[in-house]
Specification:
heterodimer; A: 3-stranded mixed sheet; 9 helices; elongated; B: mainly alpha; 6 helices; F-box_dom (chain B)
Chain lengths: 169, 216
């Protein structure tokens, strides 16, 4: 009966390592990937739909993603174009706090946001990394992100020479 | 298990990350590693072509609104764009399209993009005095630094590299020629041998036939 039907039905998702998570339709629709899928089967099929398997997201990451989408389920999500236009805009303190995690988790979150197509979350998490790169020397960037210096001395000299163009002599 | 690093992320995501940085920062972080360099070079080149498009558009627009500006203002606003158009657009473009360099002066892209935005805004709110605009002086200085460095530091190296490449190519060509000649010589000597064998056989045949006739 329609009267008994909750306005925001429950949906289950399963992580790559087999853990099941319960969330609501409204939250999960923030994922473009899942939205496309649900549109394909039709809203009516949601209640009879089994748990959605997410092969590319592990349970730790999925837990973080679900925390984010449940917090933002009632907010109007900006389109990708709107996200691109604003560069250094205001960031919700809740989000700022939410993104305080170690880099491994952040990489996984970025990969998941990309796979699940959640533009706002992808924007927030990639921007977070960009802010870490900002105002750091190449050596600091290497040690922060655990990147190996794979240049030969001649090659690095060539790049350095190019970058010296605006140093006053 | 190896810990994931930033470099494990796909290229389009790294490009996304870089898009929050200024071109100057993108140019400076090329030094981090080869992958960064490769990705950032492409971003810089794309930025260069986009800025070129912006400059061309603006040059046309300024031409159209010429009457609304006093002559000095018109001249001053136009000069940096003309400088960019005649120098960077033709000088660098050739080498970028050849793949020998990328548009490494990222700070110039930032400055020109800021200038383009400034002119666009100035046109909407009314023309100010360009001569007094701080960004204009900065832009001139940067442009001159960029051009000087390119002409005296980068171009000679590019020519040297080109010469070396030409020499290497010539050596390769000669080596190939030698190989072809060697093969030809081998072929000829083989043919020679075959001929000799043929002659020998024929001689023997003649001798045998002679022998037979004598017996008869």
């Amino acid at each position: 009966m329609d009267i008994d039907r909750p306005s925001d039905p429950q949906v289950s998702v399963v992580s790559s390592d087999g853990t099941m998570f319960h969330t609501t339709l409204k939250s999960i629709l923030l994922s473009g990937t899942i939205k496309d899928m649900i549109e394909h089967i039709g809203e009516g099929g949601v209640e009879n739909m089994g748990a959605i398997p997410l092969q590319n997201v592990d349970s730790k990451t999925l837990e973080i993603v679900i925390k984010w989408i449940e917090h933002h389920k009632d907010n109007i999500q900006p389109t990708s174009e709107e996200i691109k236009d604003k560069t250094a805009d205001f960031i919700d303190p809740w989000d700022e706090n939410f993104l305080e995690m170690d880099l491994d988790k952040l990489y996984n979150l970025i990969t998941a946001a990309n796979y699940l197509n959640i533009p706002q979350l992808l924007w927030l998490s990639t921007r977070k990394i960009a802010m870490l790169i900002k105002n750091r020397t190449p050596q600091e960037i290497r040690s922060l992100f655990n990147i190996e210096d794979d240049w030969t001395p001649q090659e690095i000299e060539a790049v350095q020479k190019e970058n010296q163009w605006c140093e006053e002599k | 298990m190896d810990k994931p690093t930033l470099l494990d992320l796909p290229t389009n995501i790294i490009e996304e990350i870089m898009s929050y940085l200024s071109y100057e920062e993108i140019a400076n972080s090329r030094i981090v590693c080869r992958r960064f360099n490769k990705i950032n070079q492409q971003i810089l080149n794309r930025g260069f072509f986009n800025t070129s498009k912006g400059v061309k558009k603006l040059m046309l627009k300024i031409k159209l609104t010429e009457s609304a500006l006093d002559k000095l203002n018109y001249f001053l606003a136009f000069v940096p764009l003309a400088l960019y158009h005649t120098n960077f657009d033709s000088l660098y473009k050739f080498h970028i399209q050849n793949g020998t360099i990328c548009f490494y002066p990222g700070k110039l892209l930032d400055a020109f993009n800021r200038y383009i935005r400034y002119l666009m805004a100035a046109e909407e709110t009314g023309i100010e005095n360009y001569a007094e605009s701080e960004s204009l002086t900065k832009l001139f200085n940067l442009t001159i630094l960029g051009l000087k460095h390119f002409q005296y530091e980068i171009l000679p190296d590019l020519y040297k590299k080109k010469e070396l490449k030409n020499k290497e190519e010539k050596i390769l060509e000669l080596e190939k020629l030698c190989e072809i000649k060697d093969a030809q010589i081998k072929n000829l000597s083989k043919q020679n041998e075959k001929l000799r064998e043929y002659i020998k056989k024929n001689k023997r045949g003649k001798q045998e036939s002679k022998v037979i006739t004598i017996r008869l």
